[in-house]
Design goal:
Layout: H1 3-14, H2 18-21, H3 30-40, H4 45-58, H5 65-78, H6 82-95, H7 100-115, H8 119-137, H9 147-171, H10 175-188, H11 193-205, H12 212-226, H13 230-248, H14 254-261, H15 271-274, H16 281-291, H17 299-307, H18 313-328, E1 336-345, E2 349-353, H19 356-361, E3 366-370, E4 383-394, E5 399-409, H20 422-434, H21 438-451, H22 456-468, H23 472-485, H24 490-502, H25 506-519, H26 524-532
Parallel strand pairs: 3-5
Antiparallel strand pairs: 1-2, 1-4, 2-3, 4-5
């Protein structure tokens, strides 16, 4: 909106009560009286404004000098002379620094300038608004003005000051203060596009975000559409959609919020509570153990869960289950055998990387105390198989402690069992996955698919590996291919339902879980998925 439009709105709000607010004044000098009446009765706005200015100069001590300047300000506004409006408002403040109407006009003008990056105007706007609010408390209803008219003028003037203070706080990234001030303005004027939009920004940029901001952003987009400002609506709603996706974990529900906000002036009760946030990394760790047998998780998954051990009591319980699973694998003197990449080694110990992520980063996540000194320690970068007993771990930064270590050249250095054997690549891919080597697993599953394009099991397992790396879209594509090649695979439907659930696509998730149960009524993962989504089988 242009500065001229802002001034027009501001003046329409605050000048309506100006004539009545003034107390009765008597002009004793006939010449002064005649000059004032002549100026007052001038029809042309610009000429009237000039006449009132001339009167104020000719009679600087007149009891109606302030009234004359107010009339001049009104005439200049009607003549669209913004510079003269601003100049006159400043003259009025020299007479009365608490003049509500002049403060409101200048606040509006400065806010428009500040929105264009004028920092001095921003500071002055804030000062004027801070003066205006206490002055507004002393602005009493004059005789002859209805309660409704004065309440409307007073409320909308307060909205000018509150909106400006909220904008100033927003520029200072004081989001809590901005939210409070802008909320007051929007309560008074729910149709104020600028303040509704900036209130939404303040709420969503807070830490943690106030989810009510999604409704205000959607409302602002609707107001922009109603004003036929398609470009503004697109920009506003794109911002809201991106913020919503990041907060919620998917797009589901956003279109409904936009539609709802277009027809309502205020958010529904408990709106913020109705927007579920995406699970935090610590919550994902808890859910991994809740929804899966820890024994079926990879080493990478185990590390992830154990790494969040101290985040909450629920994380402690999840970590304990994983640790118990690891210890169960080592009962009766049984040692674990894992494939690792050597980061560094001495004759007595090896620092190595187990998971694919740590191998790529060359970051050790296990220290192995060898059973006996090594005559020729493995070189950094070597892929080896380690056998030993995991005795402890530290969550942050994560590292296992293993003792009684023995090593041999790793399977990663060996070629597949048969050069053109899809089953050989598939089997080795499965071994890689169980060791947390997701990239190697994906590579071998891909080789298996190249040799056998209808290999449903390879598509399915590659999808699982992709999902373990957080690549949900790739996982969905592979699950779909697995189902296309073997439509009676309940596990594939259930896995795809889980991927859809991660992307917050509830309807697709429910459909796949139900398809899995139609094939296999005992499918545990599908039952649990429908239970989480509160959907009937």
């Amino acid at each position: 909106m242009t500065i001229r439009h802002w001034v027009a709105i501001a003046f329409a709000v605050v000048f309506a009560a100006s004539a009545a607010v003034a107390q009765p004044k008597t002009i004793k000098d006939p010449a002064e009286y005649n000059a004032y009446i002549a100026a007052l009765n001038t029809a042309d706005p610009a000429q009237k404004a000039a006449a009132m200015e001339s009167f104020a100069v000719a009679y600087p001590n007149s009891v109606v000098k302030e009234d004359a300047l107010e009339q001049a300000m009104a005439g200049f506004q009607q003549a669209n002379d913004q510079a003269a409006v601003e100049k006159t408002a400043r003259r009025i403040l020299q007479i009365d620094k608490s003049h509500v109407r002049a403060l409101a006009i200048l606040t509006f003008i400065d806010r428009a300038k500040a929105a264009q990056g004028d920092k001095p105007a921003l500071a002055e706007m804030q000062a004027f608004a801070q003066q205006g609010l206490p002055a507004l408390k002393e602005w009493h209803k004059p005789d002859g003005t209805s309660d409704a008219d004065f309440a409307r003028a007073r409320g909308q003037t307060e909205s000018i000051f509150d909106g400006a203070l909220g904008f100033a706080a927003l520029q200072a990234k004081d989001y809590a203060t901005a939210r409070g001030a802008l909320a007051k303005s929007v309560t008074i004027d729910p149709g104020n596009l600028q303040d509704v939009y900036q209130l939404g920004i303040a709420e969503l940029e807070m830490s943690p975000p106030d989810a009510t901001g999604f409704w205000h952003i959607a409302r602002a987009g609707g107001l922009a559409k109603a004003q036929r400002n398609a470009a503004a609506a697109q920009s506003i709603l794109a911002y809201g959609s991106a913020k919503y996706r990041n907060y919620h974990g998917g797009d589901d529900g956003w279109d409904q919020i936009v539609a709802q906000a277009a027809t309502q002036s205020a958010p529904p009760a408990n709106f913020a509570k109705s927007i579920k946030s995406a699970p935090s990394p610590a919550e994902i760790a808890v859910n991994a153990v809740r929804d899966n047998d820890p024994a079926t998780l990879s080493f990478s998954d185990w590390e992830y869960v154990l790494g969040f051990r101290d985040a909450s009591p629920a994380n402690q319980a999840a970590a304990d289950k994983v640790w118990q699973t690891i210890q169960a694998h080592q009962k009766n003197g049984v040692k674990l055998k894992i494939s690792v990449k050597v980061v560094s080694a001495t004759k007595d110990s090896i620092d190595a990387a187990i998971t694919d992520e740590n191998q790529q980063a060359n970051k050790a996540d296990v220290t192995i105390a060898m059973a006996s000194p090594m005559a020729a320690p493995p070189k950094p970068g070597a892929a080896i198989d380690i056998t030993g007993v995991i005795t402890d771990y530290t969550p942050r930064p994560f590292k296992f402690a293993m003792k009684e270590g023995l090593y041999s050249p790793g399977a990663a250095q060996q070629p597949p069992r048969a050069p053109n054997d899809a089953q050989g690549y598939y089997d080795r891919g499965f071994d890689y996955y169980k060791k947390g080597l997701h990239d190697q697993a994906i590579g071998d599953y891909t080789q298996a698919i190249a040799l056998k394009p209808d290999y449903a099991e390879a598509y399915f397992n590659r999808g699982i590996a992709y999902q373990s790396k957080g690549l949900t879209d790739q996982a969905l594509a592979d699950y779909a291919k697995a189902i296309a090649h073997r439509s009676d695979d309940a596990d594939a439907y259930s896995a795809r339902g889980g991927a859809y659930e991660l992307k917050r696509q509830r309807d697709n998730a429910v459909a796949d879980y139900r398809a899995a149960l139609k094939i296999d009524p005992t499918n545990h993962d599908a039952k649990q998925g429908l239970k989480r989504l509160s959907a009937a089988p």
